[in-house]
Structure formats: C-alpha cells, structure tokens
Request: fold
Amino acid sequence: MQEVYDFLKKAGTYYLATVEGDQPRVRPFGTVNIFDGKLYIQTGKVKPCSKQMAANPKIEICAFAGGEWVRIAAKAINDDRLEAKQSMLDAYPSLQGQYKADDGNTQVLYLQDATATFSSFGGPDRVVKF
Reply:
C-alpha cells in the first residue's frame, strides 16, 4: 500500500473512474492519504462521483509518472469518522478553504480489496494487493 501511495503522490494527479448506469465516468483527482492503515481518497458528497460511488463502489484509478503507470481496481468505502476526514484535510491544507471535517459535505473513502498493477513499456507488470 505504501508503494501505491508513494506513486500517486509522485504522479500528483490521478484519474478516478466510476460508473453511472452503464456509462464510465473519469475525472482527475489529487488527494490521497494513509489513515488507520488504509489508503484514502477525498471528494465532496454533493459531487456526482460521490453519488456514483454510493450506487456502485467499484472504482478504478490510473496514474502515470516517470515512464511507469499504475492501475488500481478497488471498492471505495465511505468513512464518515471526523478523524479520517480531518487527517485528509491536515494532509492537504489547501482544501481547508473549501472543506471542513464536520461540514456535512467532506467525504473520505478508503480503498478495499485493492489490486494495483504497475506497468511500463520496458518490463513485466507487477501486482500489489492491499
């Protein structure tokens, strides 16, 4: 999990895919945090991606950095604990102007049953599960 976190931080931007009905939806994200031994992402409950993950928690994440990319398949599980939300906001102080741990909008989700596949053009795939 640490390797996946480090890669996503290095990439800076990753792309989160959700499903709405039968239509894939992809958007750029940048938040990633480790809290309580789990890898977390963050969004707002008012956003379509939050509603999509509530209806179908299966997601995929893709990021590219340094000639290598990672694809992560997982379930996004909502964690409504204030401590989890505050940990994310502490890791990203720039979000604190838009979000507060107790604002009713801030949402953090951890990745469950995750499979991360690291790939490059020059070598075999490497799989990490967490």
About this structure: Residues 33 and 91 are 7 Å apart (CA to CA). The mean pLDDT is 98.
